Amino acid sequence: MQRPSLDRAADLREEPEVIDRLRHEPGTRAIVVREGRARVTSSALLRVPSSEPVDAAWALLGRDADGTPLLLAALSPEVEAVDTAPDETWLGLRDLGARLEPAETELLIEALALAAWLRDAPFCPACGGATELRQAGWSRHCLVCGRQHFPRTDPAVIVAVESADGERLLLGANANWGGRMYSCFAGFVEAGESLESTVHREIEEESGVRLSALRYLSSQAWPFPRSLMVGFRAVVDDEAAARPDGEEIIDVRWFTRAEIASALDGAGPVGLPGPASIARALIIDWLEDTA
Questions:
Q1: Distances (CA, A) of 137 to 51, 67, 109
Q2: Confidence label for 1 from pLDDT (cuts 50, 70 and 90)
Q3: Which residue, of 47, 112, 226, 257, has the greatest Cβ tally within 10 A?
Q4: Distances, alpha carbon 178 to alpha carbons 173, 182, 279, in Å
Q5: What one-character DSSP code corresponds to residue 276?
Q6: Contact by Cβ (8 Å): 265, 253
């Protein structure tokens, strides 16, 4: 089991005015996010003094590896991005790909997801009233009806589907990609549905095949817009039944290990998901499993 690399400092969230206190401490640093992009260097998130951003929504991200308090400064779109040094820039998760260390990627995903919620959900979804931030930016209290709201996470499944002998992988081309890239099948969990039921439903809907076996592999938070991707591997019951749904998925195709290895190297025959995605991790897990 993978242990979290970031101390989210839940013990500080109930402290009154903790954000103001930390902002005025010289050692506190902030991760700055604007419109889905973070201020970064070539290989790490930039940690700026917490006194630097002014017009921002603030929250507590946690403690860095050395115990330094880390805040989130979520800039509004109206605030122009500050000038950066020559080795700095503004990049999103897909842009950064595998350039960041795993701990930095985890921190980036947390910052992007929380920043989107801070900026996009200022009103109570129950009554429409204004809310105020509490718990160091991790909850909102409605000033009208008194309800408490938290950042929303939507569970979704993503599945690497393999042949009965384990030697071929079934991937699909999403209509949004115009047939340029193939990936694992994925879909959101519906109300009252288990993860396992979602896997069976989504795979049959999108690719036409039924599954004889499945097992959980890993999960990944994905802040577009607020998903938790739960990864599985599954074995098909009837390989010949594979066909696209014609709407979301425009093509399905069985790939050999040699074809997948070539595609991962960028030599075709198709494009595969980028290094930051769990889809690529599932594909690599299948490729390297030769037992």
A1: 17, 20, 16
A2: very low
A3: 112
A4: 8, 10, 18
A5: T
A6: no
